[in-house]
Design a protein that fits this description.
The complex is a heterodimer of chains A (114) and B (117). By secondary structure, chain A is mainly beta. Chain A contains no helices and eleven strands. In chain A, strands 2, 4, 5, 6, 9, 10 and 11 form a seven-stranded mixed sheet that branches. Chain A has a four-stranded antiparallel sheet with strand order 1-3-8-7, with no helix packed on it. In chain A, strand 4 and strand 5 form a beta hairpin. The termini of chain A are far apart. Chain B contains no helices and twelve strands. Chain B starts with a strand and ends with a strand. The interface between A and B is medium-sized, with 25 and 23 residues.
């Protein structure tokens, strides 16, 4: 069974540029999460989807971040414009249901903003 | 809101030494608890989890954790570490108790474990 797929794995951009990350969850997983992991910290949730509906986006900085999950499968996370402080690893995770069971993580996208 | 504290930022052990990584949480009610591991160059994966029942939980690769409600702790242990256990370990809990309507996980800052051959 394929795991959670993310692309790109690495991205280097200059500040004020836009950037997008893509995630393909495990087949059949209804719940999708985007996390941000700063250096030396644990992951912090940005947004959670149940199918195509964003049910928890309270931690998403909505002035510059946006996300979508069309058709309830793949998801994209966008930053526009990027700031220096956005440098981090962006993790996507999925789970079969929105419960406290296991979340399956992708490899992440390491973003560097110069 | 729930918070998670991991006391050790970096632990260095020799092979065959015993390991205990601390994790404390703040919510005092019924709680679900998780340990995740991230090996170098790999993605986060579940090591073990506690939902209810026996407070001593066994996970993969010989790891175990004990839930001590009175101490708000869920420490991770392994009697004899191997070089391949070198990784970063994260304790995680839901931000509020079960049934509170929130299904995200709050992660600790992580403990980096380096095992010297």
């Amino acid at each position: 069974e394929a795991g959670v797929v993310q692309s790109p794995r690495y991205k280097i951009i200059e500040k004020k540029q836009p950037v997008a990350f893509w995630c393909n969850p495990i087949s059949g997983h209804n719940t999708l999460y985007w996390y941000r992991q700063n250096l030396g910290q644990g992951p912090e949730l940005l947004i959670r989807y149940e199918n195509e509906e964003a049910v928890d986006d309270s931690q998403l900085p909505k002035d510059r971040f946006s996300a979508e999950r069309l058709k309830g499968v793949d998801s994209t996370l966008k930053i526009q414009p990027a700031e220096l402080g956005d440098s981090a690893v962006y993790l996507c995770a999925s789970s079969p249901l929105a419960d406290y069971n296991e979340q399956f993580f992708g490899p992440g996208t390491r973003l560097t903003v110069l | 809101a729930q918070s998670v504290s991991q006391h050790n930022h970096h632990v260095i052990l020799s092979e065959a030494a015993s390991l205990e990584l601390g994790c404390n949480y703040s919510y005092g009610g019924t709680v679900n608890l998780f340990w995740y591991v991230q090996y170098p160059g790999q993605h986060l994966q579940l090591l073990l989890k506690y939902f209810s029942g026996d407070p001593l939980v066994k996970g993969i690769k010989g790891f175990e954790a004990e839930f001590i409600k009175s101490k708000f702790s869920f420490n991770l242990r392994k009697p004899s570490v191997q070089w391949s256990d070198t990784a970063e370990y994260f304790c995680a809990v839901p931000p509020l108790g079960p049934g509170a309507g929130s299904y995200q996980l709050t992660f600790g800052k992580g403990t980096k474990l380096s095992v010297i051959p």
